[in-house]
Structures are given as C-alpha cells and as structure tokens.
C-alpha cells in the first residue's frame, strides 16, 4: 500500500508547489502594481502641487483611468485635486480627455462623498469647469455628499459668490416646487441661508433671503433662525476714520466689480466695505421679518422685594423648578450678549416696543447689557426717549436690580489682556454709571440671596481687588528700579558733559554750541522726570487699596508714573543723540544729516510706539474732555432761549393766550 500511494504523494506535493508558486507570483504582481501606482501618484501629486499642467496631462494620458485615476488616500481623482486648486483650464483639458461614453464615471465620489462638482464650490475660479461638468454629467447637480449636501450647499458653506450664483441659477432652472426645497434645506434643518451667514458672505445671504423669503424663519436643529445666528457674532464695523471713509466713497462695493478693482492695495478695504454694506442691508431685511421679541416672559415675579435684612428672609428665596429644555435667546438679547450693537439698534428702530422684551430669567435688555458689559447697547437704550424710565426699576426672577447685575459680570476673554487693576476700574466705573440710571430704592433692594447690590459687587470683586493690589505693587516696584537706573545715568551725564571742561575756568568747552544747551535741557528733564516717577510709584506702593481708590486715584498715579518714566527715557535718548552729534560731527552736510538721522531714530521710533500703545487711553481722554466740554463749558458759551415758566414761587402761572 505504501508503494502504491507513493506516486500520488509525489503528485500532490507537485500540485502544492505549483500553487504556492502561482500565489507567490500573483502576490509579487500585486506588489509591483501597487509600487507602480504609488510612484505614479507621487509624480501626479507633485505635478499638481507645482502647477505643471503639461506633466499632469502627459501622466494622465499614460494611465488607463486617465484623469479619473485616484491620487490621494481619500479617493480624490486628478480632477478633484485640480478643481480644488482652482486650475480651471487644466480641469477643462482633463474633462476633454474623458470619452463621452464614460461621462457617467464623472460622478465618482471621494471618501467624504464629494463629487468633482462639490470641489468647484470651494472657489470662484472654476465656474467654467462647473459648466462643462454639468454639460457632460447633469446628474452631478443633485448628488449629495456624506453630510447630505449638494454642490449648492457646499458653495454656500464656503461662501463663494460666483460659483454659488451659477449653481443657484442652474438649480432654479431645472427644479421647481417641492423639488427645490431639497436643494435649500439640509437633513439637519440647516438652510443655505444659515450657511451663508456662517460663512460671513452677507451679499449671498441677502440674495438668498430676497429670493427665498420662507428661509428667513426656518430653524436649524438647535432652534436657531438666521437672524439668531447673525446675532451671535460681533459684526465688523465700518470705519469711522475720515481718511478711510473718503477712500470708501471712491470704491464701488458691488459684487460685479470684484475683478475690476481700483488697485490691489485697496482689495482689503473694498472687501471690508462690501461686507459692511451688505451686512447692513441683510440686518434690515431679517429684522423686518422677525417678531420673536413678542414672545416674552411676564414682568410679574413671585419673588417679593425687600429693602432690609430683618424679618422673614425666606420670602426672598424661592426655588423655581423647570423642566423645559434650554431654548436660544431672541436675536435682541443674543445681539446684546455678543456685542452686535447694529442689530439691537435696528430692532429698536423698527419696533420700539421691543424694549419691553424679557427673557426666561426675567431680565430685560439693560440687565443683559450690564451683565455682558455692552456699553454701546446700554448707552443706546438709556438715551432713547422713555426707555430708561420703563426699564430702570425692573427686577429679574432672583430680585436682581440693574445694580445687582454689575456684580454678575460674565468673564470676558479680552479682560485677560488687561491688568486686573484696569478690569476692576472698569467694574467700578460701570457700577457708578448704572447707579446714575437707577432709582434711589434700587440701592437698598435685596435680591433672593438677601444681598444689596453693593454687597454683591464687593463680594464678587474682592478676589479681583487682591489680584489688582499685588499686580500694582509688583509693577510699581519694577518701574521704580528702571526709574532709579535712568536717574543715575542722567545724573552722571550731567557732570561728564560732552567735550569736557576747560581746565582753567572749569566751564564746558562746547557750552556756546546750540546743541549743548539742547543736551543740558534734555538731560535735566530726564533726571527730573525719572525722580518724579519714582515718587509716584512709591505713592502707589504705600496706598491703602480700597475699592474706591481703584476707580481713579490709583490708576491715575500709576499712569502718571509711567508717563513720567516714558518722558525720562525719551529725554535720555535726546541727550544721547545731542552728545553723539556734538562729539562726532565733522562739519560736512551729508555726514551730519546721516548722523542726525541715526542719532534721533530711536527717539522717533519710541514716540510712535508709545502713542500706538496708549491709543486707547488717549481716545478715552478725548471722549472725556469732549463730554466735559459739552456738559459744562458749552452751556456757558451758548445758552438757548429760556422756556416759559410754569411754576414760580410755589404757585402756578397761567401761560398767556396765543398772540400776546
């Protein structure tokens, strides 16, 4: 039996060897093909990145799939990559390489589900390519990616105006009625108007709102309308600079003029004006069709107001249990929170009665403006006729008055960029500002925690005061060291004058030269300013650091010390420049000019740098001086005609009849 089975065993072994050889050959073949594909992909990708169109076309001509060959690990074809990189001519040339019978292959989708038409939505330079794509494969217009977005949605999400306009016209031409809605609203309820606003293309959003008015009231999955989304971002304001506004008047912001701008350097200014103009139009349109402020909470609250801490305090504490889901605030309050003053002003201009709107916490627009430190909205509302009287005495559901809201400040990201002393000063000034608006009774009202507004403010800002104290002491110490060092240098320079002294008389040799007097005055000013700044910093260090000190006293002392220190540094630079010119000047014109430029360059640079840093401070000083002039000085210079007296000496006077 063993002898008979031996040939069969040899035969079986031979078959196994042959199978293994074939498998190995097949594996090697696949490996070689993969290596070849990797090499081709590398060359193609590099040629696409280097904008070598001829090489891309030559490589595609040598591949079986041609321009439909996948280049990236995300299944992007050559046409995908060329379209994404705005290569319109190359894309059209690649499309011409695809045979008419293979047009259905143009619907290939990458790993995210995007077609080549989706890629045109990322830029405005492939509109011609998009036209050719739809001519060859019209079904591309209705195809969606894995986020259920058509190419039209994709263009709206990227905020590309020209390609969106073309795709939108194509959609409206080929789809009407219920079919059109599938292109306008995504599965998650987001509309193309939502996406246009999120992309900050306000011209596109305005055109969408005008064409599809029903989208202005559509809500996304989070219950946000387009106006609510717009209210969540602080809009970039139009420039108030005179020179910039003069240039803006010469620039046409129309979308059709994007390719024929005045100059390349004006591109950013034109974009800014374009965005401002259309944002204003969009706000007017959306506000006109939004009446969400009508849905308000009741002004009635079960929380009883108390004016002292004695007696049964439980009446001021009431737990309100609610199971309602958190809904977004109205555009009026969202704009107040996020600093979109333009939206607030437009709502109140079109609907003055919206000033009565109250949120779920029982807070009106002034409560919200104070909490989020929106001074522009606060001032705008207070200055409106009758608005202050209607809102200033109101309390929320926790019995918080407007003064209480100063202590309920929401942490601002920008506050981290300022020193804690300046943040505390802003809070103190806000408290004083709100106190001028509120009634006398508001100062003694207790909230649901049985605290007055002043108690709540001090409690919330006590930690900030400690931080501000440490910050000011540390800053004053550091500045003092610098000021003493400068004073030492200035004092030594006063007795080692440039050019030396006459051995017989002891007087300076160069004292008759004008620059010598310049040096003497600058050095004396530097020494005097440095010593003055030392006194100011020592005064800061030894202060009591009470809350009221941070409102003006401490900040003024620190600012005065810093200013004197800066003057000291500037004068020391001037003295150095004068010394350099006095000792090195050769009497030649161009040599002297060069020497003057080199010597005084640090002074000029310092002045520009210092004024740029202190721009905000100088601006606040200007507005304060303007306010004082309008309020106190202008009435003395110009007095309006006196109004007829109605009450005089405690008795009413009847006004004279007309004509007398």
Could you say which structural class the secondary elements and strand pairing correspond to?
mainly alpha
Strand content: under 5%
Q: What is the number of strand segments?
A: 2
Give me the Rg, rounded: 38 Å
N-end to C-end Cα span:
149 Å
Please report the number of helical segments: 26
What is the string of SSEs from the N terminus onward? Answer: HHHHHHHHHHHHHHHHHHHHHHHHHHEE
Helix content: 55-70%
Order of strands, widest sheet = 1-2
* Biggest sheet features: 2 strands, antiparallel
* Model regions low in confidence, pLDDT < 50 over at least 5 residues: 255-262, 307-311, 313-325, 643-660
Mean pLDDT: 79
Global morphology: flat
What does this structure look like?
There is one protein chain. With 660 residues, this protein is mainly α. It has helices at residues 2-49, 53-61, 78-84, 88-96, 116-120, 127-136, 151-158, 161-174, 178-184, 192-198, 202-211, 226-231, 242-248, 267-288, 331-338, 341-350, 365-371, 375-382, 387-391, 402-407, 420-437, 453-495, 514-541, 553-584, 589-613, 615-637; strands at 647-648, 651-652. α15 runs antiparallel to α16 (341-350) and α22 runs antiparallel to α23. The longest helix has 48 residues, at 2-49.
């Amino acid at each position: 039996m063993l002898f008979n089975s031996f040939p069969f065993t040899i035969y079986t072994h031979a078959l196994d060897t042959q199978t293994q050889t074939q498998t190995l050959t097949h594996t090697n073949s696949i490996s070689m093909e993969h290596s070849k594909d990797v090499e081709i992909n590398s060359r193609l990708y590099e040629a696409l990145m280097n904008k070598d169109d001829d090489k891309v076309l030559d490589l595609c001509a040598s591949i079986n799939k041609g321009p439909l060959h996948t280049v990236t690990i995300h299944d992007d074809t050559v046409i995908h990559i060329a379209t994404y990189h705005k290569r319109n001519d190359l894309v059209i040339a690649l499309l011409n390489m695809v045979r008419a019978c293979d047009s259905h292959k143009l619907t290939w989708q990458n790993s995210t589900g995007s077609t080549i038409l989706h890629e045109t939505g990322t830029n405005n330079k492939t509109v011609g390519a998009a036209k050719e794509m739809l001519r060859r494969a019209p079904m591309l217009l209705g195809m969606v990616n894995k986020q259920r977005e058509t190419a039209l949605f994709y263009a709206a999400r990227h905020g590309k105006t020209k390609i969106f306009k073309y795709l939108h016209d194509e959609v409206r031409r080929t789809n009407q009625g219920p079919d059109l809605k599938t292109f306008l609203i995504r599965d998650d309820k987001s509309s193309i108007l939502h996406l246009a606003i999120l992309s900050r293309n306000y011209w596109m959003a305005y055109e969408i709102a005008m064409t599809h008015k029903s989208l202005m009231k559509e809500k996304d999955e989070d219950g946000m309308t387009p106006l609510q989304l717009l209210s969540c971002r602080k809009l970039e304001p139009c420039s108030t600079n005179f020179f910039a506004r003069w240039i803006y008047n010469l620039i046409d912001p129309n979308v059709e003029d994007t390719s024929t701008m005045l100059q390349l350097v004006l591109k950013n200014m034109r974009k800014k004006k374009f965005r401002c103009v259309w944002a204003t139009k969009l706000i007017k349109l959306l506000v006109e069709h939004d009446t969400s402020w009508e849905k308000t909470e009741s002004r009635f609250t079960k929380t009883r107001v108390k004016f002292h801490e004695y007696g049964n305090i439980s009446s001021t504490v009431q737990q309100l249990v609610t199971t309602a889901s958190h809904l977004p605030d109205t555009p009026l309050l969202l704009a107040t929170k996020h600093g979109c003053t333009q939206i607030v002003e437009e709502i109140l201009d079109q609907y003055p009665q919206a000033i009565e709107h109250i949120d779920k916490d029982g807070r009106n627009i002034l409560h919200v403006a104070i909490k989020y430190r929106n001074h522009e909205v606060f001032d705008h509302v207070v200055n409106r006729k009758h608005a202050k009287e209607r809102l200033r005495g109101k309390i929320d559901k926790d019995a918080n008055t407007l003064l209480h809201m100063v202590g309920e400040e929401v942490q601002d990201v920008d506050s981290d960029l300022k020193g804690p002393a300046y943040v505390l000063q802003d809070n103190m000034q806000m408290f004083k500002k709100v106190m001028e608006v509120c009634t006398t009774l508001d100062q003694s009202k207790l909230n649901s925690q049985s605290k007055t507004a002043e108690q709540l403010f001090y409690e919330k800002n006590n930690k900030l005061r400690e931080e501000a104290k440490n910050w000011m002491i540390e800053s004053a110490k550091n500045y003092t060291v610098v000021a003493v060092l400068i004073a030492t240098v200035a004092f030594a320079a006063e007795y080692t004058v440039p050019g030396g002294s006459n051995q017989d008389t002891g007087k300076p040799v160069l004292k008759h030269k004008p620059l010598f007097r310049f040096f003497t005055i600058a050095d004396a000013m530097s020494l005097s300013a440095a010593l003055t700044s030392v006194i100011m910093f020592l005064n800061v260090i030894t202060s009591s650091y009470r809350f009221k000190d941070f409102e003006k006293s401490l900040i003024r002392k620190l600012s005065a010390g810093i200013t004197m220190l800066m003057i000291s540094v500037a004068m020391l630079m001037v003295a150095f420049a004068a010394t350099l010119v006095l000792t090195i000047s050769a009497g030649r014109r161009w040599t002297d000019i060069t020497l003057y430029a080199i010597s005084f360059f640090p002074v000029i640079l310092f002045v520009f740098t210092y004024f740029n840093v202190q721009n905000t401070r100088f601006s606040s000083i200007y507005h304060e001086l303007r306010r004082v002039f309008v309020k106190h000085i202008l009435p003395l210079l110009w007095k309006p005609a006196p109004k007829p007296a109605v009450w005089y000496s405690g008795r009413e006077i009847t006004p004279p009849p007309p004509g007398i």
